[in-house]
């Protein structure tokens, strides 16, 4: 839990209200869920397939849109210690004062904007699934939806690609098809409402297990393959041949360590009340050993199924290892003795994954529930550094990304964590 808990001890004494607040707050969880460059960066009239300066487009959900990119680490004492981008962090309209699509949370720190003469176009949306949803909040999927609420991401890509030289399209999708938000909600609620001597695990709950049956995994793999096929169709419709652009399928990173790697005890409630990582050890182990490989496996399988010659893979599975939420070796600003995110060494000593939010989002809080368990500012910039290496000066390549400098994070001259892109390995 973070700022706006002016008396943390009082909240720890009242655990039932905390659990109740968790239940209600998580109902809002949207899930997978340098300056942003929206479609307002006007291309010249002659730009198009194969002509003009290169562009990169990113499509998908919150793990590529920039969700939680406002926060560089966490502090329970003062949110300003970690507030790297301020209240306009997700405002991607031309004026920088609002969102093009509400709650997509396309942060200005999102990985699309690699620079170096390459312009980024971020079409991803926090909470998106493979198919467009027009419920309470419009969530464009990777399809050709065209209605009063907006357009699907494939259609947006097709229209943008006609007047831009889009050389690489990066897709991260599928997490919400696996009901990521509901799984997280169940795991945290089970942690808060069961004692350490009678643990109620989430990984064996029927509602969670149903998402990982062989039949459901096969269905989601087919959905993702369909979404990737829509990307290829969009580019073809815009006038591209397969040798003029590359499709990069990006997997999801592990956001929490195994149970033995947490810095907070499994007993008591400090994992959530202090760290914002309310998970039992066995559930964390299951997340890394079963859930994440299953989700990423479906993406990689879909990348193969789509049958395109121009596909590359960016494996992010271990990109945050050593810097994950509540992991040993990193901490809150007050725990590591640093005043704020601009302090020397902050990137190496603070977390790259945002806390799971419950009651700290109530009232005038600057936090949003949908930011929970997503790559924060450092994580976003780390993924950008990985993507730049995949771009490879216009000759895209596959690879697995990890923290450079033997796990000790250092910043590049552009202010990003220096990452290593090694041989492709989903292990």
UniProtKB/TrEMBL annotation:
The keyword Cytoplasm does not apply. The keyword Signal applies. Keywords: Signal. It comes from Promicromonospora aerolata. Residues 1-41 form the signal peptide. PANTHER family: LIPASE 2 (PTHR37981), SGNH HYDROLASE-TYPE ESTERASE DOMAIN-CONTAINING PROTEIN (PTHR37981:SF1). This is GDSL-like lipase/acylhydrolase family protein. It comes from the Bacteria.
